Amino acid sequence: MFIFNVILFSFLFSSSEFILNRNMDKDIKINFLLNDDIELIENDIYTHVKSSKGYTDILGMPKLPLHSTMIKLDPTKKYSVDFEVNNSRFIDNIIISPSQNIEKGLEKNHIELIDSDFYNSDKHYPFVNVSISEPMILRDLVVANINVIPFKYLPAEKILEVYESITIIVKEIGQIEDSRQRVMPKSRVFEKIYKNKILNYDETYRQSDYQNSAILYICSGDIESNSIFQQLVEWRRQRGYIVYTASTSEMGSSSSSIKNYISNAYFNYDVPPEYVALIGDVGGSYSIPTYYEDFGHDSYGNQCEGDHPYSQLDGNDLLSDILIGRMSIRTVSELSTAVYKIINYEKATYLGNLDNYFTRAAMFGDPSTSGNSCAITKEAVATLLSNHGFNDVYLKTSGGSWSSSMRDQLSDGSLFFNYRGYLGMSGFTNSDVDNASNGYKLPFATVLTCGTGSFAEDQTCMSEKFFRAGTVSNPKGGVAAIGTATWNTHTLFNNIVDMGLYHGLLADQVETAGACLVSGKLSLLNTYPTDPYQWISAFTHWNNLIGDPATHLWTKTPELFTVNHESQVSYGTNYFNVLVLDSSGNPVSDALVSMLIRFGDTPVNLFTDSNGEVLFDLNLFDSGLVSITVTKNNFKPYTGALNITNSNISMNIDSSQPILINDNNDGIPTAGEEFGISVPIINFGSQIVQSITATLTSYSNLINILNDQIFIGDISVNQSFYLDDFNISVDPSAVQSEDLELYISFQDNENNQWTSKINLDIRGSHLIPNEEIVIQPGQTNSFSISLVNQGSLQANNVVGEIITSSNLLTINNSSDSWGTINAGSQESSGNGFNVTASSDVVSGSQLIASLLIEDSNGYSRTENIVFRFGTVQVDDPLGPDNYGYYIYDSNDINYNLHPEYDWIEISQIGTNLNLANSGNGNWSGNGPLNIVDLPFNFKFYGIDYDQITICTNGWIAFDDVYSESFRNYPIPGAGGPSPMISAFWDDLETGNNGDVFYYSDNNYVIIQWDNMRTHFSNSSETFQIILNNDSNLPYGDNSIKIQYKDFNNTSVGDFNDYPPEHGSYSTIGIENHFANDGLQYSYYNNYPTSAMTLSDNTALFITTALPVTLPVPQLNTSLSSIDFSIQPNTEETIEIILINNGEENSVLEYDISYNYPELESPFYVPGSSPDSYGYFWSDSSINPELDFEWIERSDESLQVNFINNDNGSENFEIGFEFSFYDQIYTEFFINPNGWIGFES
Question: Most exposed: 22, 78, 400, 537, by fewest CB within 10 Å?
């Protein structure tokens, strides 16, 4: 039978096939690797090329796999695409099957259409292998799809050429007008979509580049003024949203008038909406219309509804410019229920009372009608969920009782409820949702099959039922749902959207229901980028979200904040600090802290820094209650308050008056100036404040306070005046808007204190390098450096000097000049810098050097500049770290130091350390540690060690360490012993015959973890560390090899358990004794670009040795030979001077040979001095006179049999007298362990 039912999902979980080489000045270079194994399915005379991607779709022409990626374009440029084939292979005697019509979602399984003219020709197909789509607009970006068909089929010769590696060049070929109607501010929610879907997207790291989150609610009926709805509006504002509301009574109730209103907000509001929520059903008392479009695919007379056109605002394409959702309600009661479900879900109000709800998911894939792909799809999503920490994933793919199983799982409570099957949901109905009793254990429901999302055609479709179900006091159903409209849906499209939803949530970490829906739609477009027969348009239109698109979805058990801030400050205090920590007391960075004055409209948002801190300007707030809300993905929101009070005794800076600058110039505080500051102060209270002293302080080294304290005396009620006697000087190196950390504090005679921050907007230069310097290993380059003056002060006579101590870069000319750089301008230096990159550098390495920038005004600052040596790929080694270590893996086959997996089994010959570990910090017997003396000194990060500590938890440390660290952490960094080699740092148990073995000889030390088990998932692990007795340049450090015989990185963790399970997979790498340098090969199952994903039978090699030829040394000596004799019990010293006249940076190694005249050696070069009896030895590696000469056994040879592996043979006659150590022997015996013995 000819099979066409292809399951299209593996692209979601496979390694990337498109690799951005780098963005060049005008062109984009992409490497394409065909990762898929080519699977051929034969039927009669035709062969089908199976793929996990999309396919070409010209009916009757060869059906070949099609691969696609999305790239960002310059909106003002026109592009073409070209390619080169780097590697290909041929498949002979093959007739490729032609594309057929789709019927009921599946391609017909028999050949009806064939283009005979082509199949009988000497042409080839495809006619175009690599193409670029028309530009598309995705909110603030212009993007395009790169489509690759990596095959060439020649029907006349019946040959298929498979392009395994292609280099793609996207070239600028001209100018065009920017097709966007507005250049939009950056959006955080869209950026998470961009960076995982757009190959060459560069994310920004400046918080100021982003707009505040914004949502527009389109309200039907009287919803806009409804008090329950206003609670949702208030919650959105508290968590930092700009919220717009509008009623259809104002804008009009047609779909066109509503879209025009959305479009006006999108293009003209200062903060354009990212989300649009339509509140109302199609029809009923609260009605908002939708769009209807079948794209020629309505076989059942359905309405084919969809809200997607509301999101298509800019450009003629399928892409969403806003995130759309419909809060489909028909009554005020349903609105109230939905609002309370959303707010309590997002706040995790009942966190401690929901059992394991946050780590549970329910997956249903009924194959009975739509085929096995429904089951396979759910298996794939279930695996993805398990890999992301869900420890209770219910999966049903066969059997009966579907409706009762779904009802039971809904009642038990799951974070996600996912169904793939057929029309009617296997008997699961709206009544089943009503009859479930899940309360606030509300799932995000994704039910993608025929009719589940027909919200216009049906009064209550399944996705609407999930959203509306329950009451305020007894919630049911879900928090939101995605369903598919019409009965015309098809398996292959439903599957890819379904899996794209979960890939977006879990792998791409999009946070909201609206972003999740867009992820599913983009996955569909990525699989079928040419929109064959408008099927992609149809399924993009028919899949809709019922719910608030800004609903923040949980993907794990919420973590808890610890938030520290003042609960009350006096009116006039002009700053407010918030410190955000996690439950363990660690700073939480990038948490959103939102301040909203009570009943206000516009929140003030700041993100915490690396210390978990934000500092707000309170000049924006009057007295009263201010809400404080802290949010971050998968953290339970913190809500608190700040009360700004008017007390009887209160004084501070008068923020209604400006701080005056007395500089005898323009009144602008400028870097390099000395000036006086006049600070306005006021008594806010109702009583006189007596005996006031004002003190000026700063924590910055860029400011010098010339007089820091003033006695003021008494201040009457409402009295306001300027303090004029503070004088300061600002260093010329202060940059534009430099925070001088200047504070003024006041203290009265009763020790009342008030403090405010003095914000001086410093005018200065700010010179920043604007590019990295790319140089190939071994090359010498002259180059300029571009500097941008981000300040408002002109920089004059600018000069710079490159400074580095690295031996990877030789500075031939370190200095250059820029002249004058005006404020806001960019200038390049005079191309005077000149450097030579070492040939001993790994491709893709980066070196951070310093650039000292000075000008004639006194500006002097050091900025980092980055040198990049080529471009890193997965087949390059990882590193170097600051010391010089690299990690090579089995895949780095282009490097002579790449390791071969060559397992050395020591369980039979090594020492069993008899360690015992039952996991989670529990052990018995000998415990998890053993300290072992090394047979040789081992140099690691420049320090010699003679002991190691071996731990059952997959690591060794040098010297004696008494830390049983079983929770792994990133390295280098806090946690775990230092220094350490981490082969597989995880919580490992010795149960089930797990053991740790040790073996040593003069060549190496081997530590083997044998059949260990992970505490979290009971996965087996067998691996070994090999410490080599060698010495490697440049400092003589020893090398390390790590081998993995049985590798299972499965410890995902569970923060819902009590106590919580740490998880974090494993940590693999090295760190030094200070824990501030090292290489992390893998942590949390993440790998850097140059690291391959480890598996069974793989190896790592860790060394400071370089993979390329080093500079050549040349020996010159003061004496070539020495002759002398030494009497017993005496010593003699003769000086020999050795000189290395070789190339710069070369290292000389040398050997000294010697002989002993009193005992004539039989060898030209002996291996050592004779033993006490007088025996010498030598070998062919040091003695050119010795040749290898194997003597093959003859036919008369006697085969020796052994009783076992340790007992020797019987005695054999030598046949002559053999003199050995002054004894005569006539017989010998043979031991199977590689030695012989003698007997008389």
Answer: 400
| DSSP class per residue in 423-447 | TTGGG--HHHHHH---TT---EEEE
- E strands, 493-647, are 543-546, 561-564, 568-570, 575-582, 592-597, 604-607, 613-617, 624-631, 638-645
The range of the structural domain enclosing residue 919 comes to 886-1084+1097-1103
The confidence band for 391, taking pLDDT boundaries of 50, 70 and 90, is confident
Together in a domain, 641 and 693: no
8 A C-beta contact, residue 851 and residue 800 = yes
Task: For residue range 184-213, list pLDDT tens digits in order.
Answer: 888 888 888 887 678 888 765 556 678 999
Max CA-CA distance within the chain?
Answer: 123
Torsion of CA 1003, 1009, 1010, 1013, to 10 degrees: -170
Nearest Cα residue to 728 out of 780, 678, 684: 678
Measured over the CA atoms of residue 957, residue 962, residue 964 and residue 967, the dihedral's sign is negative
Residue with tokens 């009757």: 60
Output the CA torsion sign for 287, 289, 290, 292: positive
Q: Render pLDDT for 957-968 as a digit per residue (tens, 0 to 9).
A: 998 876 677 767
Q: Are 229 and 119 members of one domain?
A: no
The whole-angstrom separation of Cα 552 and Cα 510 is 9
Condensed to tens digits (0 to 9), the pLDDT of residues 998-1045 reads 999 999 999 999 999 998 888 999 999 999 999 998 889 999 999 999
Name the region of 712 (left: φ>0; alpha: ψ -120 to 50; beta: rest).
alpha
Q: Are 1086 and 986 in contact (CB under 8 A)?
A: no
Q: How far apart are CA 323 and CA 277, in angstroms?
A: 8
Q: Residue 881 corresponds to which tokens in the numbers above?
A: 């770290």
Does 847 share its domain with 955?
no
Residues 639 and 663 in one domain: no
Same domain membership, residue 891 and residue 802 = no
Alpha-carbon gap, residue 132 to 649, rounded angstroms:
70
Q: Which two tokens stand for residue 137?
A: 């607009």
**Residues 466, 607: one domain?**
no
Tally of helices (H runs) and strands (E runs) in the chain? 14, 73
Min mean pLDDT across 13-27, 243-257, 975-989, 1112-1126 is at: 13-27
- Residue type at position 1182: I
Q: Is the pTM above the cut of 0.70?
A: no
The amino acid at residue 792 is S
Residue carrying structure tokens 């340790």 = 1206
pLDDT per position as a tens digit, 436-445: 999 999 999 9
Inside any domain, residue 1160: no
| pLDDT reported for residue 4 | 27
Q: Are residues 614 and 656 in the same domain?
A: no
Q: Is there a single domain that holds both residue 915 and residue 1011?
A: yes
CA angle in degrees (0–180, nearest 5) for 674-677-680: 175
pLDDT of residue 192: 82
Helix intervals (H) in 131-187: none
Where is average pLDDT lowest: 266-280, 482-496, 1120-1134, 1190-1204?
A: 1120-1134
CB-CB contact of 1061 with 1052 (8 Å): no
User: Residue 3: pLDDT above 60?
Assistant: no
Separation of first and last alpha carbons in the chain = 80
pLDDT at 123: 93
Q: How far apart are CA 835 and CA 489, in angstroms?
A: 62
pLDDT of residue 771: 79
The length of the chain in residues reads 1240
Q: How far apart are CA 539 and CA 517, in angstroms?
A: 12
CA–CA dist 54, 257 (Å, integer): 38
**CA pair distance 288, 656, nearest whole angstrom:** 47
**What would the two tokens of residue 392 be?**
């209770």
Nearest to residue 163, comparing CAs of 174, 153, 155, 175? 153
Tokens for 716, please give them: 């009457």
